[in-house]
């Protein structure tokens, strides 16, 4: 709807929502060109309009919830009644999808907004029609004057401010929330991406899971309802926890909001890591078929759902697959005082400079109005620029890729019976994630360098928040060390493939018991500077190099016995191939893991997988350059084999759970682990856990414990 039609619509909205006629004095044409005051031109129409239900108007069907003035109305008729203020650029976590490991470059403190400046700007925004202010960041709670700021905002209720909200990582929430509430905080959103403490540490590169849970519980205890919990879902990292998170809403009044992973500068986003809203709904419906949609609130970013009978609810923030720009009512203020009219927009205008130059609000209003009028219709333009972004129509291919991820477990719940399939290998969890979290070189480096030293450095820099226990960060991380440290080098004392007469023979493994065996292999292909960017940006004419090579590797592993003469044909229960791109050296590191439950090992399959994946990369890229070198094909580690294997399992534990978790919790597993550690003298013993779960036992819960301890578990 263009011109006067849209304007009429706006007028209808305003008449419905705004009893104060004077607000109309400031309204202008939606084209953004300043014109005569509305009362002169459209008085007649205004008078003829009766109150009526919400009208969706304009090409974007903008829903007006608030009576913001023209200053905050954009050219698409969207009224911006929701201001998000970043209180700090700093953060006490380093979530991989959000911040680089060493944090962001910090603005000098004199350039940051003081609390007085934040309050002055807020007051002006509220006078212009902002009804909701959300404090965010960085991490808002690292700001020392946060309580004073909320107290100051609370003074603006009479001016029209209805809601003061905060989004926090929750690490220090439990302690600070009573004061925040007393100062006037109405709503709280807490971010939590995993229910597995050790995984939390991997994702956020800091400890603190238990603190966040405590923060959520404190918020519930203090009467916040619902407490919204934000979970960014990333394939290969936490997607398998979606149902666990839904189960979390069974008895807790929380609103779990699954967020589609969004691309931001340098956060290594790629479409394969993104799990779309519809895919998540499918996953949940497979377990709870009556999982259903609820009524959304206007302007909500999330689509509300629930499992009937559950206390809490679920939401999906589908910024990528189904954007909600049409009803956008948000603007943002950065910690250094820039106004950002769109989360994805590049344009920012400094309100700080205008404000510091003049005590008069009029100039500020003009600058804000001009910026709001420049706001684009939606962020799709930005997404189209991201070559890797594909609409979730191709969700199937994403799903296909994810099925090769060996560490993930599925929790299958046919009515009343709990069973779970655990495919994790007996390595510390971080190694498993490293294999699955493809292409993330930064994470690889992180685990490979001495984190204690780096944490001490961070503490010295003051990067770690004052009230976070630094000593906690410095704790020994032995638990997470790669198990390969503990596996002695293969004792090649005899060559079993050659018989005494020097002829070849296939070793009879018939007498060996079936045991679970895993192998990890790696290879490197140096592709050179011409080819590297084409692979990285997925621009190779022949197709998606990494996806094709991944499939080639997996297929090759399955056919190893046909190609290597004396190899046994074994049943492979899982195989995964992943890649890490090394920009500096223009090479790709390929890792594979293979798994079987049989009489002989799977290292040949793992080695085959990386070899063929490397050759396939060569094949896909040879038209661009033939200067590629495949090197360093090797076995990284091998586990399993029971008492007859060279790198034998330390122990197999059998456990039976029939009475639910009351009788068996994390400490029990800890106890067993201590016992096995004592028995074997190894810090990370190689343990296979067989579990028989009875009805009423939460398989997912049990799996979390075993996952944390890096146990191989079979149910
Ligand atoms: N596209 C887009 N996504 C946003 C915007 N604001 C928040 N989000 C998404 O919503 C997620 C959760 O943000 P929160 O800080 O909890 O805020 P919120 O969802 O607006 O909170 P409510 O006020 O409870 O609706 C973010 O991680 C983003 O993914 C926005 O302006 N545009
Ligand atoms: C940037 S954080 C700031 C507030 C606070 N530090 C926190 O983590 O809640 C606000 C929200 O943005 C989400 N977020 C950050 N990076 C994201 C990304 N790449 N994709 C989707 N959501 C993201 C976070 O999970 C969090 O819920
Ligand atoms: S806690 Fe929030 S601001 Fe900090 S790194 Fe994580 S998402 Fe980003
Ligand atoms: S991307 Fe921009 S326009 Fe779209 S909802 Fe977010 S802030 Fe609004």
From TrEMBL:
State what protein this is by name. Answer: Molybdenum cofactor biosynthesis protein 1
What cofactor does this one take?
[4Fe-4S] cluster
**HAMAP family, A to Z:** MoaA_B, MoaC_B
User: Which keywords are on file for this protein?
Assistant: 4Fe-4S, GTP-binding, Iron, Iron-sulfur, Lyase, Metal-binding, Molybdenum cofactor biosynthesis, Nucleotide-binding, S-adenosyl-L-methionine
Recorded catalytic reaction(s): these are:
GTP + AH2 + S-adenosyl-L-methionine = (8S)-3',8-cyclo-7,8-dihydroguanosine 5'-triphosphate + 5'-deoxyadenosine + L-methionine + A + H(+); (8S)-3',8-cyclo-7,8-dihydroguanosine 5'-triphosphate = cyclic pyranopterin phosphate + diphosphate
Q: Which organism is it from?
A: Mizuhopecten yessoensis (Japanese scallop)
Q: What biological process terms from GO does the record include?
A: Mo-molybdopterin cofactor biosynthetic process
EC number of the protein: 4.1.99.22, 4.6.1.17
Q: What is the lineage of its organism?
A: Eukaryota, Metazoa, Spiralia, Lophotrochozoa, Mollusca
